[in-house]
Amino acid sequence: MDDDDSAFIPGIHNWCDRWCERCAFTARCRVFEREQIRDLKSPEDFWNALSENFKETLEMLHAMAEEHGIDIDHIIEDSKNDTSLEEEDKMLDEHPLSMITDQYLFEGKDWLESSKINGYLEELARQVNLGLMQVSEAQAQKAKIDEALEVIKWYLFFIHVKSKRVLNDLSGDFWEEYPEEEKSYNGSAKIAMISMERSMQAWKMLLDVMEDEQDSILSLLVLLEKSRKLLTALVPKYDQFIRPGFDE
Ligand code: SF4
Asked: What is the pLDDT of residues 65-79, one digit of tens each?
């Protein structure tokens, strides 16, 4: 390996979210070099800002769910009995994790394609025109919405795809000989978990602005939290996986 090659981290692209514009390792990634993506914004600042107060998001979600009579933990208990992959003929598509992430994908897509965002932006413009809101306030709200939507859209399909990958890897015993930090299902679960948590933070950002959408956003957050808990029950050691570059 020459000096030039040593700058690159082998296999880093196998355990990332492929969001190169938001990645701090572009200079050390062969895939990025090949794809020659440029003009990046500061990824560390972006993710640090988004991941702040995840605990607060969870507390808010549980309080809201309780207020709406949704017992997240009970729903998970019901599904937990079904998280075993021991039945050889069980279709991965029928696994609760696959079904819930699939449901999130479709319901999230429906939400994004609805008129909710445009309706809200039109209302902001109306308030500015009537002098009920400062232009700067409307711009700040729009910037927050744009940022949240960027994250939600990026991970909308990714969460389901990576969750299916986890189930697929778990269905074989190939990885049992590997240490936890190298098992493929741990790596897939880790990036799936990151995607779920970032999406939850982004939905919370939208919720902070679009308070009238509390019910619809809550149901999406519940799906993500159920997915997160199922994933943890299924792959409890996911956090031990060491992603080249990101976790070193
Ligand atoms: S490691 Fe970073 S730069 Fe490389 S493919 Fe993944 S997101 Fe893109």
From this structure: 888 888 787 655 445
- Measure the CA–CA gap between 151 and 167, rounded to whole angstroms: 24
- The ranges assigned to domains in the chain are 1-43, 53-82+89-240
In the reported structure, the alpha carbon of residue 47 is separated from the centroid of ligand 1 by a whole-number distance in angstroms of 15
pLDDT digits (tens, 9 = 90+) for 94-130: 899 999 999 999 999 999 999 999 999 999 999 999 9
CB of 26 closer than 6 angstroms to any ligand 1 atom: yes
Are the C-beta atoms of 244 and 9 separated by less than 8 Å? yes
Sequence letter at residue 153 = K
Please name the residue that has the structure tokens 């956003």. 217
Question: Are 1 and 22 contacting, i.e. CB atoms less than 8 angstroms apart?
Answer: no
CA of 120 to the centre of ligand 1 (A): 34
Number of the ligand 1 atom closest to the C-alpha atom of 9: 1
Per-residue tokens: 153: 């859209």
73 alpha carbon to ligand 1 midpoint, in Å? 35
- Which DSSP category does 178 fall into? S
What is the rounded CA–CA span in Å between residue 100 and residue 235? 16
| 187 three-class SS | helix
The C-alpha atoms of residue 183 and residue 116 are separated, in whole angstroms, by 41
Q: Is the CB of 18 under 6 A from ligand 1?
A: yes
Backbone phi and psi for residue 27, each to the nearest 5 degrees, phi listed first: -70, -15
